Amino acid sequence: MKNKGLLIVISGPSGAGKGTVYDRILERAPEIQKSVSVTTRLPRAGEQEGVHYYFKTLTQYQQMIANGEFLETASVYSNYYGTPKAAVLGLIEKGRDVMFEIDIHGARQIKARYPQSILIFLMTRDFEVLKERLIKRGTETPASLKTRLSSAKNELAQYELFDYIVFNDTVEQAASDVLGIICAEKSRVKANEAAIKKMLSN
Amino acid sequence: MKNKGLLIVISGPSGAGKGTVYDRILERAPEIQKSVSVTTRLPRAGEQEGVHYYFKTLTQYQQMIANGEFLETASVYSNYYGTPKAAVLGLIEKGRDVMFEIDIHGARQIKARYPQSILIFLMTRDFEVLKERLIKRGTETPASLKTRLSSAKNELAQYELFDYIVFNDTVEQAASDVLGIICAEKSRVKANEAAIKKMLSN
Questions:
Q1: Is B162 within 8 Å of A121 when comparing Cβ atoms?
Q2: Measuring CA to CA, how many Å separate B142 from each of A85, B124, B152?
Q3: Chain A 127-186, CB below 8 Å of chain B: which residues?
Q4: What ipTM did this prediction achieve?
Q5: Which of A56, A150, B4, B21 fits A60 for a cystine, CB–CB 3.0-4.6 Å?
Q6: How far is A138 from chain B (nearest CA, A)?
Q7: CA distances from A75 to A8, A41, B16, B72 (A)
């Protein structure tokens, strides 16, 4: 009796360390699947169809939107990026866990289209630390820094969208917390109902 | 901003390994508190008041029941055993986690009197394994074995009372699963609401 897999979403403001924590989780739990996005941008050198992205024309992409084929879709600098629903739900049905690292708009779309998704908000312990991290990256102008901090506050204010909040004190601890959440979600009575009923029916 | 502690209940049928898993969790996470029970039975050699038990007379105990001072209470072979509510909730208010190892009747009482409790059902992967373990203990007659297995099935049928089910394949894995559940519960957005609101108000 194979349980369904989980759809796990890691979100959080710029500077909170989503990408680093996400990569560390996948190193420690390589059985978790990354989802492959669909995009309208052209392949870069070395990028392979179905591995890095599914490459589509704008017309194809718009048709996919019209067909409701996306768990989430967004446009960034005039290119589209989206998550194909069928591929992800197919993995989940087979019992595989799929994890996303995505901004809050994507997280909201995924929750709306697949309410069983587990949404984790990754955040620094306070805004001071977030500010320091953004400054350290050295990529922010004073104006963009201000915008990012204000966006971060705006995102945290939407905390009720999320199931969990993980404070990124260290990458290792944050990764452990997410793995603990995944373990707990797999131990939910609701997630094991079919197996329990089978045990009871014997 | 200190979050409240958790009240964690480990329950499950005889033979599932509650005691062993409970002890292993406390070894790995010594910061978790055991609750000290109140009892009407006489102290055995070496047992200290307030460490092993709070020792009470039958009259005192019955007064405590009448006052609603227990999270759960039960009688075993004409002695009473119970969990004092004030002591446990006091620890939880201070942010300490308190863990119980208790039978399903106790678990049900605790959930009724403190609905935020986290109830974990510890079970073997199937009833065959449970039977083998009970036989290995060498303490069961054929009749008592039959009773225990039938009780176990009856307990599992009450799975909806529980939040989580942990399969005790190995003690180490089961302890890790419970620690994962505790970590996840501490990461719930609801458990961190006060801290989040404080961050937003600055």
A1: no
A2: 54, 20, 15
A3: 127, 153, 156-157, 159-160, 162-166, 176-177, 179-185
A4: 0.90
A5: A56
A6: 25
A7: 22, 10, 53, 56
- Alpha-carbon gap, residue A20 to A61, rounded angstroms: 29
Contact of B91 with chain A, judged by CB distance below 8 Å, is answered with no
The alpha-helical segments, DSSP class H, found in chain A are 18-28, 58-66, 85-93, 104-113, 127-137, 142-156, 171-187, 193-201
**Whole-number mean pLDDT of chain A?**
94
Other beta carbons within 10 angstroms of residue B179's beta carbon come to 18
Reported as a single tens digit per residue, the pLDDT across B93-152 is: 999 999 999 999 999 999 999 999 999 999 999 999 999 999 998 888 999 999 999 999
pLDDT tops 70 at residue A97: yes
Q: Indicate yes or no: CB of A166 within 8 angstroms of CB of B187.
A: yes
For residue A60, what pLDDT is reported?
97
- Rounded Cα gap, residues A33 and A48, in angstroms: 17
Cross-chain Cβ contact B183/A163 below 8 Å: no
Closest partner CB to B189 (pick from A126, A159, A188)? A159
Q: What residues of B are in contact with residue A179 (Cβ under 8 Å)?
A: 180
The model carries a pTM of 0.91
Check if the beta carbon of residue B72 is closer than 8 Å to that of residue B119.
Answer: no
